[in-house]
Specification:
Layout: E1 2-7, H1 12-24, E2 28-31, H2 43-54, E3 60-65, H3 69-75, E4 83-85, H4 89-97, E5 103-107, H5 113-124, H6 132-148
Parallel strand pairs: 1-2, 1-3, 3-5, 4-5
The protein binds D-ribose (RB5).
D-ribose is lined by residues 8, 10, 42, 65-67, 69-70.
Amino acid sequence: MRIGIGNDHTAVELKDIIAEHLKDSGFEVVDFGAKAGERCDYPVPGKAVAEAIAAGELDRGVLICGTGIGISLAANKVPGIRAAVCSEPYSAKMAALHNNAQIIAFGARVVGSEMAKMIVDTFLGTEFEGGRHQNRLDIISEIEEKYSR
Ligand code: RB5
C-alpha cells in the first residue's frame, strides 16, 4: 500500500516518526511535507496528498498540522476526497469502517507520537464496511456535485 504523508512546519518531528513507523510496517511512504527548518502553509501539503490519492497514485494519506484541522479542510476541497481529523483510535477506525476516508489527519499539538502511531495503525488496518454506509457517502457526493457545477 502506498501512503502519502504531508505536514506543515508544526509537525516535522511527528511526521518523521510516523513515516519511519509506516516504513517499518512495510508501507511505501511518499513525503509531501515540510522538512526540518522549512516553513509551510498547511493547505499546500494537504492539497498535494489529496490530489495524488484522487489521481490514483496513492492509496491512503496521513496529514499532520498543529491541530489536523486546517490541513484536512484543504484536502477535503479535492473532489472525492474524505479526510477525517481523529485524535484517538476509535474515531480512526470509524473513519475507515463507516466513512471510507482515504486520509487520516491529526494534530502534532494535540496527540503524542504513541497515540499517533495507534491512530494510523488502526486507520490503515480497517476496511470500509460498505452497505448502508455507501448510501450516505453517495449523498455526500451529490452535495459535492451540486456545488461543483
Ligand atoms: C500553524 O500555526 C497552525 O495554524 C496549523 O498548523 C494548523 O493547526 C491549522 O489548522
